[in-house]
Specification:
Layout: E1 2-5, E2 10-15, E3 22-26, E4 34-42, E5 44-49, E6 52-57, E7 60-64, E8 70-74, E9 79-86, H1 90-94, H2 99-106, E10 111-114, H3 117-136, H4 143-160, H5 172-187, H6 194-201, H7 205-216, H8 220-236, H9 243-249, H10 255-266, H11 270-276
Antiparallel strand pairs: 1-2, 2-9, 3-8, 4-7, 4-9, 5-6, 5-8, 7-10
């Protein structure tokens, strides 16, 4: 049974015991763009992820992060459930309460959680049946209810997981900042607003603002502007480039817009900076000594 709901934002599939082995691909096919939760009800499966094969004995739960490329090998006789939700629904699924950070940690990489048969029968199966029931209401199904059920599934998974065994190279804040830096590096010349980065990162403005302030002591807009200034000051040191050319290269329609931005940020006009710049790149003579070393 494969069910598509809310466009392509949620997928729900029950794999009944069969006579032949089957293979499902995460990060492609029916689960191309999804965070994935799997409930192994009966038997065992194997997951090939990042060139490693993990043998998963049922009953158990596994989670795969957004767009993770993996193969799920289901032998004959095994029974599993697969629930996929698009990254667009992450905010609704994760919520904003204290549990949110725990759930984010759970979904940041492959996590495997062994459980008891009673856990599956008493906790997860009722939720899966409720999810299936809500999906069946094709005319008036509720996205809020569906996301709430998935959230409860994840909370119960987290409760069963030895979270200390989940090895993270980076904290949740650092992961968001890494992605934010990458996006800024790609888009800073296109003058994208902060809301664009929030949408791409699938976080609220308040959360991105809090992460940037907490870790870098600057709001997101200032960090984006700082990246523009890095490029601007480098180009201004080349006398061959006109102010208009530099403005165009940085996404400004005319030199006056660029000059206004540059003076607001540095206290100097582009021409003044060009005259006063030093080999170290400091803004000599301005009231705004800037250190670019923290970004990107």
């Amino acid at each position: 049974m494969l069910t598509n709901i809310i466009g392509s934002m949620v997928r729900f599939e029950e794999i009944q015991p069969g006579l032949q082995a089957r293979t499902f691909s995460a990060g492609s096919g029916n689960f191309t763009d999804f965070n994935l939760i799997g409930v192994v009800q009966r038997g065992d499966i194997s997951i090939v992820y990042e060139d490693e094969q993990h043998n998963v004995l049922g009953p158990s739960i596994f989670c795969l992060p957004h767009k993770a490329s993996a193969k799920i090998l289901v032998p004959a006789g095994s029974q599993i459930w697969l629930i996929g939700y698009s990254n667009e629904l992450t905010n609704l699924v994760m919520g904003t309460e204290l549990d949110s950070t725990k759930l984010e940690i759970l979904m940041q990489q492959l996590t495997l959680t062994q459980c008891q048969k009673s856990d599956v029968n008493d906790v997860f199966l009722p939720l899966l049946k409720l999810l299936n029931l809500e999906i069946s209401f094709t005319k008036n199904r509720s996205q809020t209810i569906i996301c709430a059920i998935i959230r409860i599934l994840l909370i119960n998974t987290y409760r069963l997981t030895n979270i200390q065994s989940i090895k993270l190279n980076d904290s949740p804040d650092e992961l968001v900042l890494q992605r934010f830096r990458q996006l800024v590096e790609i888009e800073f010349k296109n003058r994208k607003p902060v809301r664009y980065y929030c949408q791409e990162l699938n976080v609220t403005y308040d959360r991105l603002h809090a992460i940037c302030q907490r870790n870098l002591q600057k709001p997101p807009l200032q960090l984006i502007n700082n990246r523009v200034l890095i490029d601007a000051t480098t180009r201004l040191k080349k006398p061959s480039d006109s102010i208009q050319t530099i403005a165009n290269q940085l996404g400004y329609n005319d030199a006056s817009q660029f000059s206004h931005f540059f003076k607001k940020e540095t206290g100097l006009s582009p021409n003044q900076f060009r005259k006063n710049n030093t080999a170290t790149g400091s803004l000599k003579g301005s009231n705004y000594e800037y250190n670019f070393s923290d970004w990107p």
